């Protein structure tokens, strides 16, 4: 069964609105979760690292004010795409490790397909 | 960020055949290696970890060659359901070269099994 749950799986919104995506770890606690974006036929690109109880760290080129991350508990991280525009349309995926870093593979959420009209 | 390279394919393979593809990595300090499978418009799912001694899981065999810095995936008796994109993922979390998650993703190899 899934160990990381992501919601919603699909969302269509109008340009200028904000969208919140939730990522939950099931049956394990995750002090760190990761958010990725994947454009068609491209590899996953890490956007940011969500840290429980502290600020997220963002990869170069990712606007922290546009992609708000909150990691309020050990099992939940949220990504909010603010003032979404059509170019933000993409597949957003979260992940978390269940175990020691470097020895345990990542488990991915089922992804959220965002379409901004 | 160090690179992970894969042949994007597509590999068109008849059902029942054996297919293999490689993935090369440039960071010699990489520690862990994984193959993920990603179906169209879905999230990646772990297929198997790759161990130094090589490992097998049913019809799937993964190998690691540290000297030449590549990993391989072999699929025997291929099924239609094996059609997917296979992502090579290299974990360098203990050293520089990976992202904050320590991972570098290949762009994937697209496999099409034909009836």
Mean pLDDT over the full residue set of chain B: 88
Major beta sheet summary of chain B:
6 strands, mixed
Sketch the topology of chain A as an H/E string, one letter per element. EEEEEEEEEEE
Give the amount of beta strand of chain B, in percent: over 45%
The structure class of chain A reads mainly beta
Total helical segments of chain A: 0
Number of strands of chain A: 11
Q: What is the overall number of helices of chain B?
A: 0
Q: How much helicity do the residues of chain B have?
A: under 10%
Helix content of chain A: under 10%
Radius of gyration of chain B: 14 Å
Structural class of chain B: mainly beta
Shape of chain A: globular
Number of strands of chain B: 11
Net shape of chain B: globular
Low-confidence regions of chain B: none
Show unreliable segments of chain A: none
Strand content of chain A: over 45%
Structure characterization notes:
The complex is a heterodimer of chains A (117) and B (115). In chain A, the strands form two sheets. In chain A, strands 2, 4, 5, 6, 9, 10 and 11 form a seven-stranded mixed sheet that branches. Chain A has strands spanning 4-7, 10-13, 19-25, 32-38, 45-51, 57-58, 67-73, 76-81, 90-97, 106-108, 112-116. Chain A has 117 residues and is an all-beta fold. By secondary structure, chain B is mainly beta. Chain B is built from no helices and eleven strands. In chain B, a hairpin with a 2-residue loop joins strand 6 (55-57) and strand 7. Chain B is globular, with a radius of gyration of 14 Å. The model of chain B has no long low-confidence stretch (mean pLDDT 88). The A-B interface holds A 6, 34, 42-44, 46, 48-49, 57, 59, 91, 93, 95, 101-103, 105-111, 113 and B 31-32, 34, 41-46, 49, 87, 89, 91, 93-94, 99-103, 105-108.
